[in-house]
Amino acid sequence: METIYLICFGVGLLFTIISAFGAHLFGGHDVHAGGVGAGGHADAGFDHGGMPGMSPISPTSIASFITAFGGLGLVFSNIDATKNVFISAPLAFAGALVIAAGILWLFNQAFRRTQSSSESHVASLVGQTATIITPIPENGVGEIAYVQTGTRYTAAARAENGAAIPAGQTVKITRTGTQFMVTPA
């Protein structure tokens, strides 16, 4: 059984090293997610907030588990009290789960804290003023520009009452969504 532990440890460690150097040398952006929104990252996943994170079945999580299983198995198989395979294997498995879960949690915390976006938080825009940059025709769609946290954004907009609003007019955002609803300010 010690051979299996050694193989798991070696394969997991080798995968980690190759991944680290490969991502560094080749940029890690050669994988195309086919429009899934993973931005070319094999580890990218999305939680309920749409923020990037790591999936429990990502290559990094799996490699962490395999490496930890092999390493802990080697340790437990060399201790007299846990030398028996029926003791060392479950302990290595449980320890590997804890380590992989810890690494998953650590990476997700790092992704959550370091994730920055140029997109504003749309829900907080209700009540803010904007400027019409493309006229809104009667019962039609135009475009507004607004500034949030020092960055200028644009969005499709409709008049709340269906009336036409000319370019250059200041409006108040009343609802947000795929198209903003506005009223003259």
Report on this model:
With 185 residues, the protein is α+β, with helices and mostly antiparallel strands. It is built from 3 helices and 7 strands, in the order H-E-E-H-H-E-E-E-E-E. The protein has helices at 2-26, 59-77, 85-114, and strands spanning 44-46, 52-54, 129-134, 142-148, 151-159, 170-175, 180-184. The strands form 2 sheets. The protein has a 5-stranded mixed barrel. The chain has a two-stranded antiparallel ribbon with strand order 1-2. The radius of gyration is 26 Å and the shape is rod-shaped.
Summarize the structure.
This protein has helices at about 1-25, 60-75, 85-115; strands spanning about 45, 50-55, 130-135, 140-150, 150-160, 170-175, 180-185. With about 180 residues, the chain is of the alpha+beta class.
**How many discrete domains?**
2
Roughly how many Å apart are the termini?
75 Å
Give the overall silhouette. rod-shaped
Radius of gyration: 26 Å
Quote the beta fraction. Answer: 15-25%
| SS elements, strand count | 7
Biggest sheet: strand arrangement: 3-4-5-7-6
Q: What is the N-to-C succession of helices and strands?
A: HEEHHEEEEE
- SS field, number of helical segments: 3
What are the low-pLDDT stretches, counting only 5+ consecutive residues below 50?
28-51
Main beta-sheet annotation = 5 strands, mixed, barrel
Helix content range: 40-55%
**SSE class:** alpha+beta
Mean of residue pLDDT values = 82
